[in-house]
Each structure stands twice: as C-alpha cells, then as structure tokens.
Amino acid sequence: MCAASVPVLFVFNVLSAPPRTPKLYFHDTGLLCHLLGIGSLPELLASPYLGMVFENIIVAETMKRHCNEGKAPSLFFHRITDSF
Fold first, then answer.
1. Cβ neighbours of residue 77 under 8 Å, at least 6 residues apart?
2. I need a surface site. Which of 25, 47, 58, 78 has the fewest CB within 10 A?
3. What is the model's pLDDT at position 27?
4. Cα separation values, 78 from 4, 20, 54, 82, Å
C-alpha cells in the first residue's frame, strides 16, 4: 500500500512462531522522535532509542523507494536472536 497519508506501517515477522504483535514503523521520523521526547540530534545520539529510530528510518525510506518506483513494498524482518 503506497499512500502519503498513512503515517504508520506494520511489518510482521513471518519466521517466528507463534505470531506476535507486528512491529510498528512511522513514516514520519520527526513525529516518532517527538513522541519519544527527543528534540535534537545530541538527544537522539544519547538516547536508548537510537537503534530503533535508525531501523525505522531504513524501513520508511525503503518503502518510499518502492512506492516511488511503482512497486508494491514487501517488507519483513528476520530476528536473529531469541533474547528479545
């Protein structure tokens, strides 16, 4: 689904069993940082959410690229550790 008005993307982990809650990604990382209480780059770099925000940016940009090329995005994630 390619729509500029959809601010949130759900991605399911197809390799885990049993199915769990989908991951939630924001198209607008500015909104994401605002909701997390991050107001500047130094705050983001010191935040424990840095990795999650970075992952969110990668997913959002990949989806935008697919949509701009007229392709249907098919995004999944693969968990390589059971520690979470």
1. 11, 13, 23
2. 78
3. 78
4. 26, 13, 16, 11
